[in-house]
Amino acid sequence: MSDQEKRVVGDNDVVSLEYTLTVDGEVVDSSEGHGPIEYIQGKGQIIPGLEKEVYGMAVGESKEVVVSPAEGYGEENPEAFVEVPKSEFPPEIPLEVGTPLQLRDQQGQVFDATIAEVKENTVLLNFNHPLAGKTLTFQIKVVGVRPATQEELDHGHVHHH
Length: 161
Description:
This protein is mostly beta strands and 161 residues long. The protein has 2 domains: 3-73 and 132-155, Chitinase A, domain 3 (Roll); 78-126, Thrombin, subunit H (Beta Barrel). Helix content is 11%, strand content 39%. The strands form 2 sheets. Strands 1, 2, 3, 4 and 9 form a 5-stranded antiparallel sheet that branches. Strands 5-8-7-6 form a 4-stranded antiparallel sheet, with no helix packed on it. A hairpin with a 5-residue loop joins strand 6 and strand 7. The protein is elongated, with a radius of gyration of 20 Å.
């Protein structure tokens, strides 16, 4: 058995991870078709509830991980809902619940929102992350583990050669 096969995930390892994310029984994201994600373990580059479960996993190992909202994208913030007059929406935007929007403030910063409710003269926008308040179920498989290079650690992200 080579060292590579016995390697388990620890801090400062570059992990290649295949994953499928299910929320309320629906697949909302998956590495299938895109290839695995790569990140440096222990650096907070993936959500905390998932990262802590990858420690000690070996290449080829898979498991299901259930992440609470607190360790995922946070609880829904009731103050992140904003009511906007319908007149402010351009006609090409469908005013339907669930429609994703990108809005700019006066400083030019971009915010993602979804339409939460359509009322008679106004639209209620939700600026929470779409997965805030949700329990996340990940099916994960570790497909690669290697120590991060010093350069990767200095830069804080994975380099592809």
